[in-house]
Amino acid sequence: MTDGRADRYAPGARVRTVHHDPPHHTRLPRYARGKRGTVIEPEGRAPLADVRAQGRTDCPVEQVYAVRFAARDLWGEGEHDVVLDLFESYLEDDQP
Questions:
Q1: Fewest C-beta atoms under 10 Å: which of 28, 34, 46, 63?
Q2: What are the backbone angles phi and psi of residue 86, rounded to the nearest 5°?
Q3: DSSP label at 58?
Q4: Alpha helix stretches (DSSP H) within 1-96
Protein backbone atom coordinates (compact mmCIF):
# COMPACT_ATOMS: atom_id res chain seq x y z
CA MET A 1 0.00 0.00 0.00
CA THR A 2 1.71 3.19 -1.11
CA ASP A 3 0.44 6.70 -0.62
CA GLY A 4 3.35 8.68 -2.04
CA ARG A 5 4.97 9.39 1.33
CA ALA A 6 8.66 8.56 1.60
CA ASP A 7 9.66 5.92 4.14
CA ARG A 8 11.69 7.26 7.04
CA TYR A 9 13.95 4.19 7.11
CA ALA A 10 15.50 2.41 4.16
CA PRO A 11 16.48 -1.26 4.18
CA GLY A 12 19.79 -1.60 6.05
CA ALA A 13 19.17 1.40 8.32
CA ARG A 14 20.36 0.93 11.89
CA VAL A 15 17.63 1.79 14.38
CA ARG A 16 16.96 1.61 18.09
CA THR A 17 13.54 0.92 19.56
CA VAL A 18 12.12 3.47 21.95
CA HIS A 19 12.46 2.62 25.62
CA HIS A 20 9.09 3.40 27.15
CA ASP A 21 6.48 1.72 29.29
CA PRO A 22 3.12 3.20 28.31
CA PRO A 23 0.08 2.76 30.57
CA HIS A 24 -1.81 1.16 27.67
CA HIS A 25 -1.47 -1.60 25.08
CA THR A 26 1.55 -1.49 22.81
CA ARG A 27 2.73 -3.86 20.08
CA LEU A 28 6.37 -3.18 21.01
CA PRO A 29 7.43 -6.21 23.07
CA ARG A 30 9.04 -5.39 26.42
CA TYR A 31 12.08 -7.53 25.56
CA ALA A 32 12.76 -5.38 22.48
CA ARG A 33 12.52 -1.94 24.12
CA GLY A 34 15.68 0.15 23.85
CA LYS A 35 17.37 -2.44 21.59
CA ARG A 36 19.34 -1.93 18.38
CA GLY A 37 18.30 -3.56 15.14
CA THR A 38 18.48 -3.30 11.36
CA VAL A 39 15.57 -2.50 9.07
CA ILE A 40 15.01 -5.30 6.57
CA GLU A 41 12.18 -3.69 4.62
CA PRO A 42 9.07 -1.54 4.92
CA GLU A 43 5.91 -3.65 5.00
CA GLY A 44 3.23 -1.06 4.31
CA ARG A 45 1.18 1.36 6.34
CA ALA A 46 -1.37 0.41 8.99
CA PRO A 47 -3.38 2.10 11.75
CA LEU A 48 -1.30 2.32 14.92
CA ALA A 49 -2.46 -0.63 17.03
CA ASP A 50 -1.72 1.14 20.32
CA VAL A 51 -4.43 3.72 19.59
CA ARG A 52 -6.84 1.28 17.96
CA ALA A 53 -6.72 -1.00 21.04
CA GLN A 54 -8.05 1.89 23.12
CA GLY A 55 -11.20 1.90 20.97
CA ARG A 56 -10.32 5.26 19.49
CA THR A 57 -11.14 6.16 15.91
CA ASP A 58 -8.33 8.72 15.49
CA CYS A 59 -5.62 6.13 14.79
CA PRO A 60 -2.66 7.55 12.94
CA VAL A 61 -1.56 5.45 9.98
CA GLU A 62 2.13 4.56 10.16
CA GLN A 63 4.68 2.61 8.18
CA VAL A 64 5.42 -0.82 9.61
CA TYR A 65 8.99 -2.12 9.24
CA ALA A 66 10.47 -5.59 9.47
CA VAL A 67 13.42 -5.13 11.85
CA ARG A 68 16.09 -7.76 12.53
CA PHE A 69 17.65 -8.16 15.99
CA ALA A 70 20.36 -10.52 17.18
CA ALA A 71 18.81 -12.91 19.71
CA ARG A 72 21.84 -12.36 21.91
CA ASP A 73 21.02 -8.63 22.08
CA LEU A 74 17.44 -9.37 23.13
CA TRP A 75 17.93 -12.22 25.60
CA GLY A 76 21.67 -12.46 26.28
CA GLU A 77 22.05 -15.73 24.36
CA GLY A 78 21.30 -17.36 21.04
CA GLU A 79 23.13 -17.41 17.75
CA HIS A 80 20.11 -16.61 15.57
CA ASP A 81 18.24 -13.49 14.50
CA VAL A 82 14.73 -12.42 15.41
CA VAL A 83 12.55 -10.32 13.07
CA LEU A 84 9.80 -8.10 14.47
CA ASP A 85 7.22 -6.04 12.60
CA LEU A 86 7.34 -2.61 14.25
CA PHE A 87 5.49 0.66 13.75
CA GLU A 88 7.58 3.67 12.78
CA SER A 89 6.85 5.50 16.06
CA TYR A 90 8.59 2.65 17.92
CA LEU A 91 11.86 3.41 16.13
CA GLU A 92 14.50 6.10 16.28
CA ASP A 93 17.82 6.60 14.55
CA ASP A 94 20.57 4.53 16.16
CA GLN A 95 23.11 6.93 17.60
CA PRO A 96 26.53 5.34 18.15
A1: 34
A2: -130, 140
A3: -
A4: 49-52, 71-75
